[in-house]
Structure formats: structure tokens, C-alpha cells
Amino acid sequence: MSNEKTRIGISKIISLEAASKAMGSKEPLFSKGLYHWVMFVLSLYTRVREKLNIDYESFVILQVVVSHSLYEINKSGDKTFTELEEQMSRITQKKNIKTSKLTFASIAEVLQLPRETVRRKVISLSKKDILTFNTYGGIKLGPSYKTIYKEFVSQTTLDLSSLMKKWEKSGALKTLLELDK
What we know:
Number of strands: 2
Number of helices: 8
CATH class: Mainly Alpha
Radius of gyration: 19 Å
């Protein structure tokens, strides 16, 4: 995994004020959209702690492993929620797992975390069967991830849908979608 994929270059950052001037409008209303975003993030953080019973750094490490798995799965084409659930189940059951190897070092590089921190947290996640790892296959999703996918991902998708609807109602979504024009 390339660290460049996760880094935003300074040239890609624009201010909302500059974007709105370029669109020929006054500065967009921002406070409600930001409020809904912050509430979404706080809800996600709370659910990670309470439902998954892991710290947020471990959750982000898990997301790198999920991202790697999705990258490999998407090589054979886009999937529906149900098809993706089946593919994730195959990965967690160690079926059909010809994927490139994900290592402590690669996760540490992507997240800019010490390798030892990543190793410690992966070991902790593997004790909960959320991840598995070995020298030959690298780090992969573990058997407990299918429960996370079914329950946690479903709820997060619903929460994201709710956020998008709130943004649409307030006009924030339209403003966000037009920022690069």
C-alpha cells in the first residue's frame, strides 16, 4: 500500500471561501453541515468503543486491513453488499485467499505509526479473532470480522445515509459536490 494514496498534497487543499468565490456565490452555510459531521464522527467513535470494544487506533488499523481486502476483492469487479459479505466470509474462513501480503511495516507506513504499535494492536485484534496473521500469509481479516461486517458496517452505512440526507436538506451536500467546479 502506498502512503501517497492516503496523503493530501498541499496543492489539493482549497479554502471554502476561495471555492465559493470561484463558484460566484457568497460563502456557503457551514455550521449545520459541520455539526452533523461532528455528530457522525462522535457516534462512530462511541460505537467503535462500545460495540467493537477496541480503541480507535486499532479500529483504523482494522480499516487498513479492510481496505486491502476490498482492493483485492474489487480486482474481479464491483460487488453488492451481499456479494461483498460472501467474499469477506471467504477471506475470514481462509477460502480463496490469493492476495498480496499485508505486513506490520506496510500498515505502519500507511498510518505513520511505529511498527511496534501496529504489531501490538494487531496481536490484540487477533486475540479477538478480528484479524489473523502469520509469516506466510501476512495480516488478514479474522473469523469475527463477519459479525462486524454484518452489524457494524450495516449500522455505519445507515448512519452515513442519515448524514447525507441531513446535508442534502441543509444544502451542505450540494455545496460540497460543487466545490471543485
